[in-house]
Design brief:
11 helices, 266 residues, 2 domains, rod-shaped, mainly alpha
């Protein structure tokens, strides 16, 4: 059955987190059945137990609100990068059309290379320092363009270079920092303790116990996975994460610039 669910999850990525959660719920239910059969259910439902569940849900909600703000900001990053790169390319095409200089051709090739470098960086094939070094190399072209274009064009190019640095730095910070790591720890600890408590909690009749234990444990475990998934939206090499930010804007920008380059330069 799990293999069938796994194949379904590949077709529908939104179900992958649920598939990852189900084995944990099955293990909990298995232990629950054992404790019920041998009479090890030593806890009884109290208001204190429900209060602990409510406190854990509140903590999870707090963590979720924090990571969602970073995630919404991260959604803009690929589009902002693509826009800056295309703005840089626009000036290069203008200079090439007017002057047909070698520098403008090499400049456009450098921008195409920047697309690949940025994509490689997102997939952790290259380091952020390498990308920053490639952004710095734009200065060599700006110096050469002083005699080929108007000064205000150079100022615009410098602004886009600054935007690239700012966006890459922000993406790197989001990627390498975790929102309240200690908060994750306490949420995981409480979820683990609650799972143990539900295994030895006596609820009659038994079928109601199975229903409530499976439902509560699924929700708590799923939300812990969900928050950790959202916390790193740029992890394209770590298996199991499903909420990565699409890099399609950068890929589309590369295709558009390459098409223009092929039609005008070659």
């Amino acid at each position: 059955m799990l293999k069938t669910f796994s194949k379904f999850a590949k077709l529908h990525p939104r179900w992958q987190l649920a598939i990852r959660t189900i084995p944990f719920v099955i293990v909990i239910l298995a232990f629950k059945s054992v404790t019920h059969y041998y009479g090890y259910e030593i806890l009884t439902p109290t208001s204190l137990f429900t209060a602990i569940i409510s406190a854990n849900i509140f903590l999870i909600s707090f963590l979720l609100s924090g990571v969602l703000s970073d995630y919404k900001e991260s959604e803009k990053i690929p589009g902002d990068l693509a826009t800056s790169l295309e703005n840089l390319a626009d000036e290069g095409f203008i200079i090439y059309n007017n002057k047909k200089t070698i520098e403008s051709k090499e400049y456009l090739e450098h921008i195409l290379g920047m697309h690949k470098d940025i994509l490689d960086w997102f997939y952790e094939k290259k380091k952020a320092s390498y990308v920053m070094k490639e952004i710095f190399k734009f200065n060599d072209f700006f110096y050469k363009f002083e005699s080929q274009t108007q000064p205000n064009f150079i100022v615009k190019l410098k602004q886009e270079q600054t935007n690239l640095r700012r966006i890459i730095t922000r993406a790197h910070t989001i990627r390498r920092t975790s929102f309240l790591g200690s908060g994750y720890a306490i949420a995981e600890i409480i979820t683990f303790i609650l799972s143990i408590a539900m295994i030895i909690l006596k609820i009659e009749p038994f079928y109601e116990s199975i229903f409530f234990v499976s439902f509560v444990s699924f929700i708590l475990i799923y939300m812990v996975f969900f928050i950790k998934d959202l916390d790193n939206p740029f992890s394209y090499v770590e298996e199991g994460l499903t909420e990565e930010i699409p890099l399609q804007p950068i890929v589309n920008s590369q295709k558009r610039i390459q098409k223009m380059y092929d039609s005008l330069v070659k």
